[in-house]
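Budget justification aside, the reviewers requested a transparent look at the raw inputs and outputs of the sequence design task funded under Objective 1. We therefore reproduce one unedited record. The lines immediately below are the structure tokens for a 85-residue chain.
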């Protein structure tokens, strides 16, 4: 999983300004919350289409979800670029 600096948020910042975290999740697809500069929680936007079958492992489901969010974001950027270009 590749993360950008924009996707990293401290627990302190999340606690003080959760609406900012929610906006980042909307923009980036997911955000990694850090406790003492170490990964603690991964926050995703809820989407019923993201629910996977019981036979999938949690790690497989997480990778699948990340790839779907990444592809959707890329598609959105491409669509916006085509309209603006």
């Amino acid at each position: 999983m590749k993360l950008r600096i924009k996707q990293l948020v401290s627990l302190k910042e999340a606690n003080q300004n959760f609406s900012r975290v929610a906006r980042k999740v909307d923009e980036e697809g997911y955000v990694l919350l850090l406790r003492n500069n170490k990964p603690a929680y991964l926050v995703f936007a809820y989407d019923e289409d993201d629910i996977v079958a019981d036979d999938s492992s949690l790690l497989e489901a997480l990778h699948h979800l990340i790839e779907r969010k990444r592809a959707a974001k890329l598609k959105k950027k491409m669509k916006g670029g085509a309209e603006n270009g």
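The beta strands are 8-10, 30-35, 38-44. The chain has a mean pLDDT of 81. Computational costs for records of this kind are itemized in the attached budget.
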